[in-house]
Amino acid sequence: MTLIETDDRSRVVLPGHPSQRFLVRENEDGSILLEPARVVSEAQLEYDESPELQALLSRAAASATVTRSRRRQ
């Protein structure tokens, strides 16, 4: 077991977990549960949850792009 102590500002160091984010839940019995978390943009969440959007964007990425000839002036 590892003893963890908070500082004057209620901060804590978790050995072996540098620069990570956690959701914190305090249970009724006073125990604290830390769940690893990551921040995801709304657009990424929509993509992750929508197979239709994933397929549409995959098809768009695979299609040939439109090209135009440029005239130099």
Per-chain topology:
Elements: E1 21-26, E2 32-37, H1 42-49, H2 51-62
How does this structure look, described?
With 73 residues, this protein is α+β, with helices and mostly antiparallel strands. It has a domain at 19-61. Helices cover 27% and strands 16% of the residues. The chain contains two helices and two strands; from the N terminus they run ββαα. It has a two-stranded antiparallel ribbon. Strand 1 (21-26) and strand 2 (32-37) form a beta hairpin. The mean pLDDT is 89.
Profile the largest sheet. 2 strands, antiparallel
Structural Rg: 24 Å
| Portion in strands | 15-25%
Secondary-structure element string:
EEHH
Q: Give the total of beta strands.
A: 2
Dominant shape: elongated
Tally of contiguous helical segments: 2
Overall mean pLDDT stands at 89
Low-confidence stretches: none
Distance between the termini: 74 Å
Helix content: 25-40%
